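Q: what sequence does this backbone want?
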């Protein structure tokens, strides 16, 4: 897991049309997966959307970046270490996510292609249990979650 800032500089801003379209998709769908070429482009777009939509959620946004294969335990540890609006390194040994319970929150996961099937099942369970939780993921592939809306990132501005 990588620590990521939720601020963006003008030199790293995504294309305005992509930004507006993805923000609209997140407002309309509970589970959105940004797919397509260019992991760096996906990351910039996810971060920009997380920053701009933070105030749309009572608990804000939380961002976790995955850089390697991530199983259920690693995902749970990473989510346990987060608090809304921030990122943090994984903190092993805690299995519950009390800070998510009952929250109106946008969870942003960059690197969703690294999630194992068990980790995706953990997300499915979490989404079923927490009606105020929304999920925005950047991945080279769909996660296969019920209600998942794919948002393919195309080249060009």
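A:
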């Amino acid at each position: 897991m990588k620590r990521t800032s939720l601020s963006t500089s003008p030199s790293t801003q995504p294309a305005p049309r992509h930004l507006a379209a993805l923000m609209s998709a997140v407002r309309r769908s509970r589970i959105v997966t940004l797919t397509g070429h260019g992991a760096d482009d996906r990351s910039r777009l996810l971060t920009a959307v997380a920053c701009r939509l933070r105030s749309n959620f009572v608990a804000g946004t939380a961002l976790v970046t995955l850089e390697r294969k991530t199983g259920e335990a690693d995902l749970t540890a990473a989510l346990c270490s987060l608090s809304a609006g921030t990122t943090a390194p994984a903190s092993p040994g805690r299995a519950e996510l009390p800070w998510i319970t009952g929250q109106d929150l946008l969870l942003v996961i960059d690197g969703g292609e690294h999630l194992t099937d068990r980790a995706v099942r953990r997300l499915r369970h979490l989404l079923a249990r927490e009606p105020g939780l929304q999920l925005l993921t950047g991945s080279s592939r769909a996660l296969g979650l019920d209600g998942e809306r794919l948002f393919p990132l195309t080249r060009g501005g």
